[in-house]
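Case study.
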Amino acid sequence: MKPSYPLRRTCQEATALMVAREDRDLPWAERLALRLHLAVCQACPRFERQMLTMRNAMRQWRHYSDHDGDER
Amino acid sequence: MTALSLDDFQQQLLAQRSYLLRYARLQLRNDAWAEDAVSETLLAALDRPQAFGQRAQLKTWLVAILKHKIVDALRQRRREVVWADGSPDGEADPMADMPFAADGHYSQAPAEWGNPEQDLRSRQFMAILEACTEKLPPVQGRLFLMREWLELSSDEICQELSLTPSNLYVQLHRARLRLRECLELNWFAGGAAA
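After joint prediction, the assembly is written out as follows.
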């Protein structure tokens, strides 16, 4: 089932939402639209995984900076 | 203090100076401010060696103090902290460089990155990540690290710096996309991940 027009997002719009949600809560309509886009798109879930990798990497870097960042 | 004499303690503190300076510079993007924040941190530590007494990690304790001093410095200099870089580079939207077709769909799908932060070369990856963070334009770099290193919420950042949310979000959006692009160029596309 294709999402109806108000909930349709392009990859570019979906990508912008995935970046934005790192720093703010998205409105419910945008969350829903993004979820629907990710379900039918092959490319955007890859961008989503890249964002997740960045989030995990920053968390690890933060931990590393607090404890042993100079022991290279 | 446990087994350390005060002189040993002082020496151990001073030995951490360059380490602290590295993170202060990364966050503040200004050598003079960074020097001040680190000096303040070391003075605060020297003033209360008993506060370290029960803690296992000197470095962890010092970084925690440094973070407080840095938040103070950012708040005091908030006008300069968010001053636009003025360079065209700082104004550009990195989204424009991504492979989107005219209809808004990807003309080339984003790459599979895997989990480089978990594998054996994670240290090298961390070094690239830090270098990419360092390469962000100053305002973007400061705001990004306030989120990611100081772990402030977007609301807290807006409050500390008297910044509007939309202004903050634009800068963070650019910083995140720029960082993504830098990682892709320097780690994922460079063969380091192969």
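Observations recorded in class. The two ends of chain B are 48 Å apart (CA to CA). Chain B has a mean pLDDT of 89. We will return to this complex in the next lecture.
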